[in-house]
Specification:
Blueprint: H1 2-15, H2 27-43, E1 50-59, H3 63-73, E2 80-83, E3 87-94, E4 102-110, E5 116-124, H4 129-146, E6 152-161, H5 167-178, E7 181-187, E8 191-197, E9 206-207, E10 213-214, E11 216-222, E12 228-234
Antiparallel strand pairs: 1-5, 1-6, 2-3, 3-4, 4-5, 6-12, 7-8, 8-11, 9-10, 11-12
Helix pairs in contact: 3-4
Length: 241
């Protein structure tokens, strides 16, 4: 059932555009959701085992100009091209970083699309002040070289623990810390997904209906032989959970 939920959420993303700050905004603003989510985990003595930031934008720019920018930004990496019946994808993956950060930049040109889509993903395995400074630098480079005006940012933090976490207690603590308004919840035997809105967070939101918006989604999975996996995302989870 959770796969159906994921499909439905992807539909929401396609139906509504999320307008972000202009590219000259400080990258620290873009890291605020990651800081918020990591703090939530830390406050409940849960490790940050993986984090991810995704940036997407549909633009009208020349492909050759974008490829040149890719080569200049990542001179030590090769540009890979993949073509299907639907699109041509140019991609660079830069994972040769001692701090454990991996960047991926993709240019997607659909055969029947009037625009080009730029996708940037940066991931890591832990979060601290040093990693934060490096992430700011990498994101500044990507945002200034590839993105134009309006782009969508999706942030995700994942915690894996060998302990069994009580879902209800975790959500109660989350609500006490954020004053979240829960909107939609689905519960199975070993899985829970819930969406809500945190008014105090300066993050993007997605309209759910005429009267409500969401800017956070949480998934909790138990019983996979590895304890509990908790995944938090703003404004919505776009990763597998």
């Amino acid at each position: 059932m959770y796969r159906n939920v994921l499909i439905a959420m992807i539909f929401i993303i396609a139906a509504y555009s999320i307008v972000n700050d202009k590219t000259n905004a400080k990258s620290a603003d873009h890291l605020q959701p990651l800081q918020e989510l990591s703090h939530i985990l830390d406050s409940q003595s849960l490790p940050t085992s993986e984090w991810q930031i995704n940036v997407k934008e549909k633009i009208n720019r020349d492909i050759d100009e974008l490829l040149l920018a890719m080569g200049e930004s990542y001179p030590n990496q090769s540009i890979n091209m993949k073509e299907s019946e639907e699109a041509i994808v140019y991609e660079i993956i830069d994972g040769q970083k001692t701090e454990g950060i991996t960047e991926k930049i993709s240019i997607v040109k659909g055969h029947h699309m009037p625009y080009t889509e730029i996708r940037y993903t940066i991931t890591g395995k832990h979060w601290d002040e040093d990693i934060e400074e490096m992430t700011k630098r990498y994101m500044n480079r990507a945002l200034s070289h590839f993105f134009v005006k309006e782009y969508s940012i999706f942030t995700c933090v994942k915690s894996k623990t060998n302990d069994k976490i009580d879902k209800n207690i975790f959500l109660e603590n989350f609500q006490q810390q954020t004053d979240v308004k829960w909107i939609h919840k689905i519960t199975e035997n070993d899985f829970l997904t819930i969406s809500g809105y945190v008014k105090s967070w300066q993050v993007n939101s997605i309209p759910v209906n005429e009267n409500e918006q969401m800017n956070v989604q949480i998934a909790v999975r138990e019983g996979l032989g590895t304890g509990t996996i908790i995944t938090l995302g703003t404004p919505i989870l776009i990763v597998e959970y």
